[in-house]
Structures are given as C-alpha cells and as structure tokens.
Queue: 2 jobs
Job 1
Amino acid sequence: MTPDRHRLHDHLLDPSGGLVYHLRALRHRHGRWAPFHRVLAGWLAGWQPGRRELVIVGPSAGYGLPTGFLARFGRVTALEPDPLARWLLARRPDAGRLGFDRLDCLAGTDGLARLAAAHPQAAILFSNVLGQLPAPGGDWRPLLARHLAGHAWASYHDVISTTTAPKPDCAGLGVSDDGSLEAVLARFWPGGTLPLTDHDTFRLGGERPRRYAVWQIARRRWHLVEWADNTGAAPHG
Ligand SMILES: C[S@@+](CC[C@H](N)C(=O)[O-])C[C@H]1O[C@@H](n2cnc3c(N)ncnc32)[C@H](O)[C@@H]1O
C-alpha cells in the first residue's frame, strides 16, 4: 500500500490547478492560450518515446493535450489530485484506455523513484507541473537524473513568469535554443530589466536539446515554458 506521505490527496483549490485553473481555461483556452497550445501540439507530435504505456503527471483536464494524444498509447495512467480535472479528463473522446493512480510522485526525495518502480516500462510526461511545486531538496534536476535516467520522460514546465509583455510577434513562436537563460529571454522579450519570478526549472533535462515558447496565461501574465525530452540517447560529453 502507498504510505500516506506518497498518497495523492484530493485538491480542488490547489494553487497550481483546481477551480481557478478550470475557470481560466474556460475563458482563455480558445483565445489567449491557443497559440501556446499549437506549439505544445508540435512538441508532443515530435515526442515518440516508443512505449505502449504513458504516465501523465498533472494533466488537469488535458486542456493542452491535442485531440487523439491519449489514444497514441495502449495504456494511460494519470496522476492528478484535482477531482474535477479527473472527471473531465476521463470524458475526453481519446480517454478509452485511461486510468488513475494515487501515487504522489512529487512528494519526498524518493517520489520519482517510486514512480519509476511502479511503471518500469512507461513513458512519463510531466504536464506543466514541475515548475509549479517546490522540488524536495530544492532542485528537480538531480532527482530526475538519479531516478528517471533510464525512463523515456518529457516535461513542459514554467521557467519564469512575468507581468511584462513579450515582443509582439511571439505568440505561437517555438524556438530551440541551447543558450543561457538570458539569451533565451532575449529571444522573446525586449532588452532591459525584466521583473520575473524564477521557477527554478531552466534546463531541467540537463544538456539535451530544449525548446521554448511563451504562454500568455492571463491578460497581463506570461510564462516562458521549456520543453525537455529525455527520450533517446544522451548527448556525448
Ligand atoms: C498548472 S496546472 C497544469 C495543467 C495542465 N497540465 C496544462 O498544461 O494545462 C498543474 C496541474 O498539476 C496538478 N498537480 C498539483 N500537484 C500535483 C502532484 N503532486 N501530482 C500530480 N499533479 C499535481 C494540479 O492539480 C494541476 O492540474
């Protein structure tokens, strides 16, 4: 049995999801969110982990997942504490092979190890969740490297958030960039000081190639989102 510390408890008013998130999605998913969701659809189409089983962590109702994405896998397990999100996710047309698990894989420094042990053959998708929760021990990178090195995992996550508008032509732009955080920010924001919240997730996948896009989540709030893909051979060096 899962010990209580690793049990995913229901949260309807979670700061990183819950009712507020559903109301935002209702309002923006076909408008402000759509350009980022188009970029995300491209990232997910390019992600071919070669596994029949998918574990998706923090999917909410699957607002960012393109139609048909869940049907790519023979078995899908979602880890999601929001009961309304689970209810909505299960009603997607592509959710035929979807089930839910109660493991909180983001709790404690051994949460990801438990996830790996419970789903040894699965591909794992962290669905905009790692930039939302503080990492046990302060940093997700060593935990991912230690516990999931042998897994095909990918993550899209907030790197920074800000109330400063990016350059006007950024909506729907996805870029590959191996530069510093400052260099990546300069691709999207005009020069000068950028007041921001750092989500401590830059280069979450280490030295592997990474991609970036800006997501306008609300009228005056933008996130820089990173796509990290741990699938396939590690780069040399
Ligand atoms: C910012 S939302 C992202 C929702 C969705 N993936 C998207 O991209 O629109 C973060 C999600 O993570 C979920 N979450 C929070 N803590 C979690 C945990 N410990 N394990 C799994 N999911 C969690 C929240 O309920 C919420 O649905």
Note: Residues 4-229 form a domain with the Rossmann fold fold (CATH 3.40.50).
Job 2
Amino acid sequence: MDITLYHSPGACSMATYISLIEAGADFNVSIISLKNNEQSSPEYAALNPKKKVPFLVVDGKGLSENVAMQTWIAENYPSANLFPADSWDQKRALSYMGWFGSGIHPHITRHFKPAKFTSVTEAHTDLKAKGKAMYMEQIALVESELADRTFFFDHFTVCDSYFFWIYERALQEGFDLSGFKQCTAHNNLLRTRPSVQQVLARTSS
Ligand SMILES: N[C@@H](CCC(=O)N[C@@H](CS)C(=O)NCC(=O)O)C(=O)O
C-alpha cells in the first residue's frame, strides 16, 4: 500500500500519526504548515477541500477526519491490536473518538483562535474563557472514564493516541490540568511510548 499522511506538527494529525506508527505501517508524511497557512494553498485545497489536517491518502484515495482514519488503521493492521475486540466495545471506541473530535476539540480551537468565531475583538477574552471552561467540563468526564484504568480499554488502542493529542494540546495552550490525576497519568504514560516520542520530536519537515 502507498500511504501518505498530511500532517502539521502540533496539530490533531498527531493522533493519526501516532496510530500509524503503533500499527507498524509503512507510510510517508507530508508536512502542511498551518503556521504558513499551507492548508489553504490551491494545491492542498484541490486534494482536501476541507483545508484541514490530517488527510490520509491510501493508494490514491483520500480520507479526512481522524475518527475515520483511526478506524481504518485499526481495521487494516489487526495484528497491532489497536481496537477492542468486542463489537460493543468497538462502538464505544467510536463513541470516544466522536466525542474527542466534535465534543472536545472545538473548545480548544475557541481558546486558541477566537478570531475564527467572532470579529468582535472585545469578545475574544470571553470566548477564550468559555472555550477553556467547556474544555475543563469535558475533561472532568474523561477523568472519571479513566478512573482505575490505564487506557480507555484493557490495552492501548487508537482512543489513547487520539486522547493524547486532546490533552497535550491544552497543556501547550497553558491550561492548568494538574487537578486531573488520571488524565495526567495517561499523558505521562503515553509520553514513554516511542511512537509518541517520535511524533513529538518531529517539529518540522
Ligand atoms: N474533525 C477534524 C478536525 C480537523 C481540524 O480541525 N484540523 C485543524 C488542525 S488541529 C486544522 O487543520 N486547522 C486548519 C484551519 O482550520 O485552517 C478531524 O478530526 O480530522
């Protein structure tokens, strides 16, 4: 298979990048610098009209959305054991990833880029505070999901690589997350994995 992941260092494409490494996949990484707005270039927009990373191209076919890519990776590299085995637990894994992508990620974006949501400059401080508060509310729920558990399931899955980014990005944003003991332990544990270290070390092309 010919696989290319379009990735920007620090962005949510980190989740899929970690999973591809965990899967033992042979793949190329093409860096799209969000800082330089490369996601909006005509070349990239022709490939992915959503103008976002990650984007995965497999044998010439493109796939967007972390949740879809993560599921594809888990299904196509079964020996890496990146999904729960049980059918119901697989749906719970999709539920976690849907939540991370649509129920938590947007709150980080509100804090990081309030100008995307309002052109009223005076509203930015309030929007950032609301984004942070809503993020914290959701992380408190994740904290209870991880109670007495090392991973989201009984072993490492794509949910763990996805949540790593969800938490890591907020740490980079300066959120004080020290009160979330379970999530912090999860983050520290993930940092010991070579896949995570490799992706964190890749800060440019
Ligand atoms: N739901 C999408 C979210 C993708 C997304 O928002 N990516 C951000 C980086 S974390 C991006 O490319 N932003 C560029 C922009 O909005 O211009 C997914 O999970 O793949």
Note: Residues 11-12, 34, 39, 51-54, 65-66, 101 surround glutathione (CB under 6 Å).
